[in-house]
Amino acid sequence: MLIKKTIASDPKSFEITSRSTYLKRRDFLKGGAALAGAMMFPWSLQAALPKKIPNLVKSPFSTDEPVNKYDDVTGYNNFYEFGTGKSDPYSNSGDFKSRPWSVTVDGLCDKPGQLDIEDLMSKFQQEERIYRMRCVEAWSMVIPWVGVQLSSILNKFEPNSKAKYVEFTTLVDPEQFPGQKYPIIPWPYREGLRMDEAMHPLTVMATGIFGEELPPQNGAPLRLVVPWKYGFKGIKSIVRIRFVEKQPVSTWMTAGPNEYGFYANVNPEVDHPRWSQAKERRIGEFLRRPTLPFNGYGEEVADLYKGMDLRKFF
Ligand code: MTE
């Protein structure tokens, strides 16, 4: 994002476990764990295994474009709490604990309370949604998310008519997030959506990828996915959701007000001050492709911004 990434920070093939090696290792661990039975620390092995999410339904909102490789989706990430390099989140998140976890939901609503991750997993229908994702750094991926439509979560807390925006906040825990020991960006990471954006059927609270619970580097145990906006809107490891009247100030608006706006709608006509947004590199492809307005979701979302000057409200 704001900080220039060097090639050296990009993931090297030997740093990333391939999907097949990973699966073999997983089977090996499973076998080992079963054998170990009463041996020491079996729970630590179990904790390391990603869990399959049962009873998934497929979403009609999915794209049929080819999905990116598991290794790209889990090895090339932005998650500054784990470091600023693209492979840091993979390398530094092995001990991250995403259980127990609950999210405080409060502000301008009639039923403030807690959202427990176990309830979210068991009481809400988990859907697979394959979305194109576009990062502000001009690369993109197609990711098979698992998640719950955000509106169905928010409605449980009964936002009232004063609620115009929703603010999201990430966990602060420098012991688990080594990046938070340094003021790289203002902590905690914060994001926001206008109420109608938050309630839009495309907006998802993701709990998994590739049919399994989210790995830490992708935002375990729950993170936002808004496919028509630049990736930085997709705040990870959320601990608070607040209904508010005024437009929230997001982390990147504070860190780089001339570079990152509140709306962050993918717009090939509005350049980032330091680079063009007209094209993107789909990870895994050689040639760059043209970027589509609203990341190709214009038919579904353009109406939300009718009458707004999207150069001003970037
Ligand atoms: N959330 C938190 N808490 N911290 C971050 O640094 N980075 C954002 C977003 N969410 C970030 C975050 C950015 S810049 C991007 S592009 C996406 O996460 C990347 O999500 P992915 O790694 O799952 O592709």
Give the structure's gist in a few sentences:
The chain is an alpha+beta fold and 314 residues long. The chain has helices at residues 19-36, 42-48, 70-75, 88-92, 117-123, 150-156, 195-198, 251-255, 298-301, and strands spanning 57-58, 102-107, 113-116, 127-134, 139-149, 165-170, 190-194, 204-209, 212-213, 223-225, 238-244, 279-282, 289-290.
Comma- or semicolon-separated keywords:
314 residues, 13 strands, alpha+beta, Sulfite Oxidase, Chain A, domain 2, binds ligand MTE, 2 domains, 8-stranded mixed beta sheet, 5-stranded mixed beta sheet, 9 helices
Write a structural description.
The chain is an alpha+beta fold. It has two domains: 8-49, no CATH class; 53-305, Oxidoreductase, molybdopterin-binding domain (Sulfite Oxidase, Chain A, domain 2, Alpha-Beta Complex), CATH 3.90.420. The protein contains nine helices and 13 strands. The protein has helices spanning 19-36, 42-48, 70-75, 88-92, 117-123, 150-156, 195-198, 251-255, 298-301; strands at 57-58, 102-107, 113-116, 127-134, 139-149, 165-170, 190-194, 204-209, 212-213, 223-225, 238-244, 279-282, 289-290. Strands 1, 4, 5, 8, 9, 10, 12 and 13 form an eight-stranded mixed sheet that branches. The chain has a five-stranded mixed sheet with strand order 3-2-11-6-7. A hairpin with a 2-residue loop joins β8 and β9. It starts with 18 loop residues before the first helix and ends in a 13-residue tail after the last helix. Residues 4-18, 20-39 and 42-46 have low confidence and may be disordered. It binds ligand MTE. The site of ligand MTE has 17 residues, from loops.
